[in-house]
Amino acid sequence: MAELNTGDGGGGKGGKVRSKKQNSKVDLTAMVDLAFLLITFFMLTTSLSKPQSMDLSLPDKDDDPTKNKDIKVDENRTMTVILGENNKLTYYMGLLASPKVGPKDIAYGKNGIRRELLTQKRAVIQYTGDSKKGIIVIIKPTKKSNYRNLVDILDEMQISGVSTYAIVPEFTPEETKLVDNK
Amino acid sequence: MAKIKMKKKSTSTDMTAMCDVAFLLLTFFILTATAKVPEALPVDMPSSVAQTKLPDTDLAIITIGKGKDGKSKVFFDLKGREIRKRTLEGMGAKFGVTFSEDDKAKFALMDDFGVPVANLKDIIAMKASDRTKANQPGIPIDSLDNQLKEWLLVSRRAAIDLDDKELQIAIKGDAKEQYPQIKKIMDILQDQKINSFNLVTGMRGKDF
After folding, report:
1. pTM of the model
2. pLDDT at A14 exceeding the cut of 60
3. Closest partner residue to A35 among B12, B23, B45, by Cβ?
4. Which terminal residue of chain A has fewer beta carbons within 10 Å of its beta carbon, N or C?
């Protein structure tokens, strides 16, 4: 394999200096290894460096309050998720005065909000009997919640396949109390 | 009977061709790769499972993050050289600052920035490496002096003039940024009837 000549320092003892026949082949294995390593690196970095993005569409905002139409929805279909400070999450189903489930604190992630979302989603579809009338999630980020919380919860919507959700940063006094007590 | 002599096979293969191909590919990837320039305002993006990639052109990125001094800052970035040039012209006309051709050419190659329009000339005059070190104060977004709104208006118009396309807006926020700050930016966008935009996120592991 290795054919790179290393000039052996065999001390010629006096005698004739015999010129060794030089081998013209150079071992390229290491060079090829290096080249492929770099290729892999550049290939991976070029496609991965492009940042991902999440689409977010908000409803039209109209400054004229007379034009704002409130859409009435069945309270049995709504789930309200309040994003609190320090990565806290509180949720309840239905109206806060007479909640169907909760209000309960829950964690982000696979075993927390996602499991609950999926369960409630199924329950709502069973209740309405129409797969098009699914759950409606109302996301309420408090002033102390951070951007990561918002992206996390939007991400959960995508993972659990909840297509109707709204970001509503308005709080009723009862909800403020609920958050502050925690 | 003559003995059949087995020819001794050489174990070494000729690597020359392989080496050629490898380096050809290497050159190709190096040349097509875009060099990553350090951002003026580094932010730690939250991660999501979203797979959509951002477009390369007709895109404005609004970066919100905390600077070295701990204050929330807003930076603005536009993709596409012609749009940048056109936007700078428009902003100069609006705020009464004249930019030379040289300024415009430099601005077209710049990345994100976060200074009021009055100080933009100083930033343009700096070297690329100094821009990241310069403590840029961020673009004013107060109701009194809302320059971000102007930047957005002018750049959107530039995009329509040049490519006949609506400018895409992306928000790149720091994960630790408080919600009201993000809300403020969203409100500015919504005031201009931009109801659909992108949130730039990092990639999340599969088992999340």
Report:
1. 0.72
2. no
3. B23
4. N
| pLDDT score of A12 | 46
Classify residue A145: in a domain, yes or no. Answer: yes
Give the closest-approach CA distance of B196 to chain A in angstroms.
4
Q: Which residues of A touch B29 (CB under 8 A)?
A: 39, 42-43, 46
Q: Which of A182, A82, A179 is nearest to A140 (CA)?
A: A82
B62 and B187 Cβ atoms separated by less than 8 Å: no
Are B26 and A32 an interchain contact pair (Cβ–Cβ within 8 Å)? no
Chain A nearest-CA distance from B118, in A, is: 30
Q: How many domains does chain A have?
A: 1
Q: B197 CB near a chain A CB, below 8 Å?
A: yes
Asked whether residue A136 is assigned to any structural domain, the reply reads: yes
pLDDT tens digits, B58-113:
888 888 888 777 778 888 888 878 888 888 888 888 777 777 888 888 877 777 78
Question: What are the helix and strand counts (H, E) for chain A?
Answer: 4, 6
Q: Is the ipTM of this complex over 0.95?
A: no
**CB < 8 Å from A in window 31-60 of B:** 32-34, 36, 45-54
Lowest-pLDDT choice from A137-141, B133-137, B173-177: B133-137
Is A27 domain-assigned?
no
- Domain membership of residue A25 (yes or no) is no
The residues facing B63 across adjacent strands are: B75, B172
Q: In CATH, what number is assigned to the domain containing residue A105?
A: 3.30.420
Tokens of B31: 């040349």
**CA distances in angstroms from B138 to A127, B64, B174, listed in the order given:** 51, 9, 14
